[in-house]
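Recall from the previous lesson that a structure prediction takes nothing but the amino acid sequence as input. Here we apply that procedure to TIGR03013 family PEP-CTERM/XrtA system glycosyltransferase from Pseudoduganella aquatica. The sequence below is the only information supplied.
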Amino acid sequence: MIRIFNHYVPRMAFILLLMEVALLLASAGLASLAEARHALHPGGGYWSALLFALLTVLSMGTLGMYQSDFRLHPGDALRQTLVRIVPALLLAFCLHNLLVHALPGLHAAQVGNWTFLMGGGAVLLTRLLLFSTVRTERMTERLILLGDGALAQECMELAVSKQGFQRFHIVGCVPVAGERRQVAASCLLPDLLPGGQSLLELARTHGAGEVVVSLGDRRGGAYPVRQLLECVLGGVRVVDASAFFEREACQIRIDTLQPSYLIFGGGFDQSFLRASVKRTFDLAASAAICVAALPVMLLAALCIAAEDGGPVFYQQERVGKDGRLFRVLKFRSMRSDAEGDGKPRWAAEDDPRVTRVGRWIRKLRIDELPQMLNVFRGEMSFVGPRPERAYFVERLGQDVPYYNVRHSIKPGVTGLAQVRYQYGASVNDAVRKLQYDLYYVKNNSLFLDLLILIDTVRVVLLGKGSR
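The prediction returns the following C-alpha cells.
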C-alpha cells in the first residue's frame, strides 16, 4: 500500500494509473500525428491530449477499474476490462466534447476516433500484461500472523480476500500461549519456544517481509516484545492488527480497539485549512450536482406528486456535528403514513412502505439530492458519515463503543461507509458502517473526498446498496 494524504492506496493501482495516463497521452499524440491535425500545436493538441487522458482515467475510475477487487485471473481480467473500457471511453468522449464546447477557453481540440481506439487498445494491452506479471510469486507479499485466535483468523480472511491489486501469501500463524485457537492446524508455524527458532529467523526462513500482531489479549507474559523488536531491527515490518485492517480494509475495528490507538495514531485533522478546503469542496460539488441534476430533480418531483398526491419533500430530524439536531431534506420515497404509529424503524429490504416511484429514486439515490440545501446551509458536508436519527443515536451510543466519535465532524450526503457497505438496517450493520466512518473521521482529506465522490458515481451507476 501507498499512503497518500493519510489514505492507503493499493500500490499496483497507483502504478497502473500512472502507466495508463502516460499511455493515453502518448496515444493522443500519436493519433494527432497520424491524422495530421493539431500535431505539436501547444494551444490545441497538448491540452486535448491531457484532457483526454484525465477524463479517461476518471471514467475508468467511476466504473471500478482501479478498485482493489478488480480480478487478476487472465480470463476475468480480459472480460472485465473489455466490458468496462468501452463505456469508459464513451463516457470520456462525451465529457471531453462537452467541456470543449462549454469551456472554449481551454483551447482544447476535439479528439478523433483514432485517439480513442489507440487509447483503449493501449489500456487493454497494459492490463493484460501487468495482470499476468502480478500473478507471479515475486509480486506476492508474504506475511506471518502472530497469534492463532479469532483475530488472527479474521486477519487471514482479509488477506486471502485481497484478490485484486494487492495480494498476500500467508506463511502461517505463530501460536501464543493463552490464545483460544481458531485457525486450522495446517496454518500453524512452530511455537516460539526457548532454544528454538526466533520470530526473526522464522520470517527470514520463509521469506516473510511483515509480521501482523493479531493477539486478542496481550496482558499475559507470553507476549514476545523482545522478539518483535528484533524483527523491526532486522528489517521485518511489524504491524498491529488494527493498523492492518485500517490499511487493507479502510476500517478501524472497534472490537479490539484501544483508546491509545486513536489518541496517538495521528489523523483527525480539524485545522482551519482543512475546514476551509472542505467547505469550498462542499459548495463546489453541491452546486455542480444541483445544476447537472436539475432536470432529474424536476422529473422526480412530478412523479412523486402524481403517484399519490402527497408532499414531494420529506423532512426528518437528524443528529449532526457535536450532537446538534437539524432537519434533513429528502424527496419522499415512502407513503405519507409510513410511521403512523410514531415508532422509528430502519428501512428493510423490499420495505412495503416504499412507493413505486420511491423504489426507483432510492435505487438511483435521487432521493438524496435535496440534501444539497443542507450542505449550502452548513448543516452537512458533501462527504462524511451519514446523519442518523436521534432515537437510533441514543440507542447506538449506549451499545456501540466509540459511536459518538462520528459526530466530531459534519455528516455527509455520501460517505465511505455508503460506498463500501450495503444499506444498514440493524445494530450489526451500524457497527460495520461505524468502522468505515471512524476511518474517514481519522483520515479525512480532500483526496479521500474526491475518491469517495468517484465511488459514489460508480455505486449510483451500478445501483448497489439501496433499499
